[in-house]
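URGENT: need a sanity check before tomorrow's submission.

F., can you look over the Response regulator receiver domain-containing protein record below? I want to be sure the sequence and structure line up before it goes out.
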Amino acid sequence: MRHGASNHPPVVLLVEDELLVRMTAIDELEEAGFQLIEAANANVALKVLEARSDEVQVLFTDVPMPAPWKAWNWPDRSMPAGRTSGC
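Structure tokens as predicted:
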């Protein structure tokens, strides 16, 4: 994987409420060379974004994410986002 000018792997915020899906995604993304921050739900993800928004470069989230946020309502739409479904 090519890294940016800083030569550090991109940081992905992985938001997935299903444990097995989250663990699989972690394995795949780490193997692909990404650095991960994981969140089990939208509330945790929002706290991560508030505290570490300058670090997170990509948002990878579950499409049917429960309230309070749906995948298409994330605050920073300028951030690249990948979406998945646990189905």
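My own read: The first strand starts at residue 11 and ends at 15. The chain has two helices and four strands. If you see anything odd, call me.
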